[in-house]
Design a protein that fits this description.
The protein has helices at about 1-30, 35-50, 55-65, 75-95, 100-110, 115-120, 165-175, 185-195, 230-240, 275-290, 305-310; strands spanning about 110, 125-130, 150-155, 180, 200-205, 220, 225, 240-250, 255-265, 310-315, 320. The protein has about 350 residues and is an alpha/beta fold. The strands form three sheets. Strands 1-9-8-2-5-3-4 form a seven-stranded mixed β-sheet. It has a two-stranded antiparallel ribbon with strand order 6-7. A two-stranded antiparallel sheet has the order 10-11. Strand 6 and strand 7 form a beta hairpin. Helix 2 packs across helix 4 and helix 3 (about 55-65) crosses helix 4. The longest helix is centred in the N-terminal third of the chain and has 30 residues, at about 1-30. It is globular and about 55 Å long.
Length: about 350
Amino acid sequence: MYCKIVIFALEFQRNMKLLYYIIYLIWYAFSLLPMRIHYVNSYLLYLVVYRLLRYRKKVVRQNLKGAFPEKEEAELRRIEHGFYHFFCDYLVETVKLMTISQKEMKRRIVFRNAELVDEIMGSGQSIALYLGHYCNWEWVSSIPLWVNPNAWCGQVYHPLENKDFDKLFLNIRERMGAHCIAMQDTLREVVKHKRENQPIIIGYISDQKPHWVNIHHWVDFLHHDTPVLTGTERIVHKMNHAVVYLDIQRVRRGYYEAEFKLVTREPQKMKEYELTDIYFKMLETSIRRAPEFWLWSHDRWKRTRKEFNERFEVIDGKVIAKDHPDNKPAPPKKPWYKF
């Protein structure tokens, strides 16, 4: 029986590697297509994703209606259609990332105020770059093309369970010189560079939905009481990193502009969660300017404060489930004289 399990595992691993190479070759071949062909494919993909599969349409509509209660139904539908068109553009643009040249990438996404980054890192201070799932966040990995060639640029990501496919995405995301940092290794990587006296810039996409046990703060974001990630702020305070917000705009199809905006160079003087509040206000401003370019298919507001209060409580700064064994009082001890 044990031998059969081992054989099955080896066969499965071999099949996964074969699948990896097949997907790699297909991705590479499609990536070589010119952008105008990619956008034809994007429209065909839109018909499949939106019209046929109706991918997360219920979630998108619910999110839009809650975020913009002041908008008419026709306007919400316009944003909805715009989002699905952009989402399919984002997918084909990510495919193109595998083979796009540095020259072409610099033409398609321009970074403004890059001298701010060089100035801060030149002074020996590292930078925490806040951004969201807005416009093409994958193309942000081309920042190394715009800053000092000696600058160490990183981006935090969530590793895939399959190591082969994780390697595939790493190769694509690191083509322009950025380094990918697994989420669980972020602090270790930051401390390592601090010990080496090497200033760095790390991009944090901080608009994800936190796990229940990681909810320590709520903000008013797009008309929702929203639980938010605060890990980035804790790292910033601990390491005294400068904080910069990346404000991205889509100029036209396939072309973006991203501006570095300084938030603070003295984070330790700010109140707890103040940086997180500022980030979400800036992100909301970006979204309201052109809402179709945010990731509305993400079930962002699934976790509510009401459910959190019913299921969890905070003890000494830690979020603990109310039915957790550590939360239950110990049974009273029987006197020694009773049996």
